[in-house]
Amino acid sequence: MTLPAHPTPPADLLVLEGVRKRYNIGLPNEAEVLHGLSLSIGRGEFVALIGPSGSGKSTLLNIVGLLERMTSGSYRIEGEEMFGLDDAALTQRRRASLGFVFQFHHLLPAFNALENVTLPALMREGRVSPAQRERARAVLAAVGLGDAMNKRPGELSGGMQQRVAIARALVLEPPLVLADEPTGNLDTASSNEVFALMRRMHAELNTSFLVVTHDPRLAARCDRVLELVDGQLVSDGPPKAASA
Q1: Which domain range does residue 125 map to?
Q2: pLDDT digits (tens, 9 = 90+) for 98-138
Q3: Could you tell me the CATH number of the domain that includes residue 131?
Q4: Residue 119: which region, alpha, beta or left (left: phi > 0; alpha: psi -120 to 50)?
Q5: What phi and psi values does residue 75 have, to the nearest 5 degrees?
Q6: Which helix (H) or strand (E) holds 34?
Q7: Is residue 7 part of a domain?
Q8: CB-based contacts of 168: which residues, under 8 Å, 6+ apart?
């Protein structure tokens, strides 16, 4: 089943300007992890974030995901400034604008696939409407799990579980999905299958993706690659042909 295309809003979905992140401020072990980082992601882009361990990728993803606060700088989602918002406002924006896919799917083992996919609606609104349940069914069918809606995670393969996680991230049609090593826990065949699924859903829904990966082959299949080294953006552009 092909899902309806998402309408196309203005170009810049998110903009970071001069973002810094410090830990242990005022203590002898104070450390700055992000050093005045600036970047933007447009509507409908499929972007990889790469870099060595300790480069600040996880910190940056947490800030973009509104899971962690920046120390200074500006971060705007769809034109709204995030810096200075209280926790309630950040939570509301996170639920409205962002979907998440992690290396480990974090599905609830007691819930079946359909119930796991309806969780974002339950968390955002306190209930799941009939329309939202039908939307969840449609998304599960779109990711190839139309016959597995009533199965629990323990009855599904690793690749199928990650498909459920992708459906969960997309069910409320967020403008941006953040994927943190989404294929890192899968074998090569399942990894390729899941990545191809994300690309297909990106094309059908015009959803932006920011994908953290250590796999240069996956980064080479993205439209744009951001590289972080020591908390600074050292390159931003199309993938290198040699990486394929």
Answers
A1: 43-69+86-239
A2: 999 887 777 899 999 999 999 888 887 788 888 999 999 99
A3: 3.40.50.300
A4: alpha
A5: -140, 115
A6: strand 31-42
A7: no
A8: 99, 107, 116, 117, 119, 120
The residue whose two tokens read 């005045």 is 36
- Residues 229-242 have a mean pLDDT of 85
Task: Identify whether 99 is part of a domain.
Answer: yes
Nearest to 175 by CA among 43, 81, 16: 43
> How much is the pLDDT for 201?
84
Round to the nearest angstrom and report the end-to-end CA distance of the chain. 31
In a domain, 196, yes or no: yes
Distance of CA 86 to the CA centre of its chain: 22
Q: Number of structural domains, the chain? A: 1
Sign of CA dihedral 137, 66, 44, 209: negative
Going from the C-alpha of 65 to that of each of 150, 170, 190, 210, 237, the distances in angstroms are 30, 15, 26, 10, 22
Which amino acid makes up residue 27?
L
Tokens of 161: 């579980």
Report d(CA 34, CA 232) in Å as an integer: 6
Q: Which of 107, 110, 104, 109 is nearest to 120 (CA)?
A: 107
Task: Give the Cα separation of 131 and 137 in Å (integer).
Answer: 10
Task: List pLDDT tens digits, range 146-204.
Answer: 889 999 999 998 888 888 988 899 888 899 999 988 877 777 887 888 888 889 889 88
Alpha-carbon distance of 165 to 163, in angstroms, equals 5
Kindly report, residue by residue over 76-94, the tens digit of the pLDDT. 999 899 998 999 999 989 9
Pinpoint the alpha helices (H) of 65-157: 87-97, 113-117, 119-125, 130-142
Q: With respect to residue 244, please indicate whether it lies within any of the assigned structural domains.
A: no
Nearest alpha-carbon partner for 143 in 192, 201, 63, 218: 201
Q: What are phi and psi of 69, to 5 degrees?
A: -90, 140
